[in-house]
Amino acid sequence: MQNIQFREIRNFSGVLSATALFLKQHAVPIFKDLIKIIVAVTVVEQLFLLWRFSNEAFIPQADPTAPNLEIVAFVFSMAFFVIIGILITVTYVNAYMLHYVTGEPEAAKMSIWSIVSRRTLPLILSVVVAYILLVIGMFLIAMPIGMLSAIGGPIGVILAPLLLIAGIYYSAIFIYLPTLVVIEDRNPFTAIGDSFSLIKGNWWISMGVWFVTSFIVMVYAMFAATPISLLVDIIISNSPLNVDTSQFVAISARINLFLGNFLYKFLMIIPTVAATILYFSIMEERELKGLRDRVSALATGGEPTA
């Protein structure tokens, strides 16, 4: 089995090639390990969806312009289930790659799941803290821009794109958070600080790799729903006008949603592997001699060496 040489990865195409090689060699064992838990999370998510849609809170209000807090709570709840499923996938892949880098046998699945059980919650906390800090930072940038726009003149309009640019730039910290929390055992604040350090000088390749691999995930997830959508269109177009097809459409929509959410959670393996490979490549370049000793100590529960 060909091993990935992180020190030889120096560009965008090198990261993608290494990602394809890793997935070719390890996608099957990862899939076998993850499928049960991803299906379980997605089923719970769909049951919650059915329960909420049967709730009278979704009956249209007398005032259609009034905000429906129940629907807002529902959207956030659905987002919670999706994010939890994705973060479990991301945590598992990072733990798996830790064993890959340290040369641990693939049979050490209990050790991998032990890392997942210990590091999933810290990763969730890290993501929450990072989002809060990002929102606060964006708000602090938006305040003076809003004040200038209120005063009048072109200055506020000219500065407004800076808000978008700053948001895109600092969103790159989420690329390396999972690796720092799971593999390097960082706490949320240290992981965020180290993420900022990693994107300095590596922003373009980091965002490029993440964008391309995430786009692949989105395309695959969308294609999964295409056959069912085509079948629904064929049945509806060939149904008599007096036949009610609304129930059939609703059921097919739920199947599409289930497949799309399931595939999206599972396919997050692709950008996660790419980001982790890029992380190891950067670390090999920065501290070639000490990398393997540090991750080996972390894998065995010891303290990382300096």
Describe this structure in words.
Helix 2 (69-102) packs parallel to helix 8 and helix 7 runs antiparallel to helix 8. The longest helix is centred in the middle third of the chain and has 43 residues, at 109-151. The protein has ten helices and no strands. Residues 56-63 have low confidence and may be disordered. By secondary structure, it is an all-alpha fold. It has one domain. It is globular, with a radius of gyration of 23 Å.
Task: Name some characteristics of this structure.
306 residues, mainly alpha, 79% helix, globular
In short:
The chain is an all-alpha fold and 306 residues long. The chain has helices at residues 12-53, 69-102, 109-151, 155-170, 173-182, 188-199, 203-237, 246-267, 269-286, 291-299. It has one domain (10-128, 176-190, 202-299).
